Amino acid sequence: LPGLVLFGLAVAVGFDPYLRRDKKRALLLIEAIVLTVIVDNCVSVALEGAWKSEYVFLKTCLDVYSYIARPALIVLFIYTVWDDPRRRLFWIPAGLNAAVFLTAFFKPWAFYIHPEGYYFRGPLGYTAHWVSGFLLLSMIVIALTLRTRNDWKAAIIPLTNALVAALGPLLDTMFHQNGVITFTEITTVYCCVFYYIWLHQEYVREHEQALREGQRVQLMLSQIKPHFLHNALTVIVGLCDSDPRRARQATLKFAKYLRGNMDSIEQAGLIPFERELKHTRLYLEIEQYRFGEALEVRYDIACDDFSVPALTVEPLVENAVRHG
After folding, report:
1. Per DSSP, which regions of 148-288 are E strands?
2. Is 0.70 surpassed by the pTM of this model?
3. Cα 108 → chain centroid
4. Which residue, 18, 87, 162, 198, could crosslink 139 as a Cys pair with Cβ 3.0–4.6 Å?
5. Using N-to-C axis directions, what is the helix angle for 21-46 and 2-14, rounded to 10°?
């Protein structure tokens, strides 16, 4: 059953057009390694009790691969969650773990298999456990970092998967699971499925963020009329020749006006009327450079202690300037 789940998941991942290429590659590699670990365990169980001296090398190869693959899987899971370049540093402990267990072919430092099939753990035999524990702890910390930087919902699946991945080996140790499919394999397959779901959630979240950014840009462009931009810049260019000091003042006010537009777009709720009035004054001062004495502005503000939606007063004033 886990093999069928992995096969179906591999097909879904391979044909998914929404996953980033690096995420898809990491997830497919995870599924391939998990499948080989399951096959590794099946072969070990099938040959259990029938060990002969010629099987010692095969058993050593199977165990070495199993010990090397598990920390590598955790590093690949980190790759699916964390885009920081520092994630490559996690290959260092995984590589050291691989080096330790490769010594089993010529030294009994990690483990030793007797010709009769008995397994003996060496002084470095728990290296994979310690390295995996360190990597799982790192994965939990990264998930908590995602919670603090983004919406807390983004960290639920990575955090849960890290805890479940740690639970698998613990259950195998407590219940001495030696069957074809162990708790570790089951929890790893579970992690693959739910990381795939998490990656889709991340895609939806990024897509929604891009839509919001696009809407903000469209709103900003709709509030800053092209003819006003052209006229304001034309006035500033003219002042550069006739009155550089006033050109500098007009440029500063125009920059503040643009900044006010961008800041107002990011404002979701109401803003104080005083802030909106300040932005409107900048618009009128820029227009004053253009029209000179032909534009007469009078302010009759009876009350300013209230709030309004952002960028609602300035369009009314602009309409009065154009048509009033």
Report:
1. 270-272
2. no
3. 42
4. 162
5. 160
